[in-house]
Amino acid sequence: MTIPNDATTAGALALPQPYLLFLGDTTIPGYAKTAFGLRDWAGDRCVGEFALPGATVSAGLTPMTPAEAHAKGARSLVIGVANVGGVIPDSWIAGLIAALEAGLDIVSGMHARLGDIAALREAAERLGRRLIDVRKPPAGIPVGSGAKRGGKRLLTVGTDCALGKKYTALAIARGLRARGIDATFRASGQTGIMIAGAGMPMDAVVSDFLSGAAEMLSPDAPADHWDVIEGQGSLFHPAYASVSLGLLHGSQPDVFVVCHEPGRTDILGHPGYALPSIEAVIEQTIAMGKRTNPAIRCGGISLNTGALSPEAAEAEIAAHSERLGLPAADPIRGGPAFERLLDACLS
């Protein structure tokens, strides 16, 4: 699956491609969502993956060294990890320098700035290579105005992080375009920005300007245009709820879709914090979203059923739809259930 680049949003990028995906020494699949997202939505721009000893997570691409990847045409190594705090540990530095020495630039969506790491900065300067930080908001972001803008907006929200908000937004935007509707995927996180080529790294924006950043991300548009906005975090997340709220207020969605992974019980990386119910997310999103769009409504539910068999997934989707009285679907599986979800979003 691929999506065309859209360089019309804030922070348009021109990244060196193709990519070698770097998995570091990651052992938690949820932290490799950047690699998985690029594999699934920009697979034609990925030549392979590079992992360090101790890694147990794979994106399913051909393992190769940076030198082998460069020989295959790769022009940058993309850090495919989004760990807690967006840090670059010391254990990665030798591998990243090896990529620079092999002729690759480094692209990062981490909070840590590549150029702030002396060993990387010195190696890049010596070798004439670039260090590219994607998680860097543009200058001049205004405070949110709350002013109504033209066009329609759909926001994906979630019961947690890393469970399908980006994939859902990408799939819905693609589904709307397949119906002949003018729709644009608006990326609000580092992986989405790498896929789309543009966007706003919401979790790197100073909190006072979050709503203004969301307004920039989804500007005034014709009445028949849909912006499908990638959600971030969860309104119930003990660490990231502020980003979710700023994005909700600034994007002023007409419709939202709740994303959930059946079987997950605790907030990722925060054991002891139970996942909220889908019902609670719907209620809270409407209550808080009404502040900037009184007409906000829930279009349906997106379920990440990747760990289930087709039969179990179908049963899970049907059960959620019946219980909630809303269309439910796994956008990656598609099918009639997903088409009903699109119908409800447009109704």
Automatic annotation (TrEMBL):
SUPFAM superfamilies: P-loop containing nucleoside triphosphate hydrolases
Ranges where the D-glutamate N-acetyltransferase-like N-terminal domain occurs: 62-137
Annotated D-glutamate N-acetyltransferase-like C-terminal domain residues: 144-336
Gene3D superfamilies tied to this protein: NAD(P)-binding Rossmann-like Domain (3.40.50.720), P-loop containing nucleotide triphosphate hydrolases (3.40.50.300)
Entries under InterPro entries matching the protein: DgcN-like, DgcN-like_C, DgcN-like_N, P-loop_NTPase
Entry superkingdom: Bacteria
Pfam family, one: DUF1611
Name of the protein this chain belongs to: DUF1611 domain-containing protein
Species whose genome carries this gene: Sphingomonas colocasiae
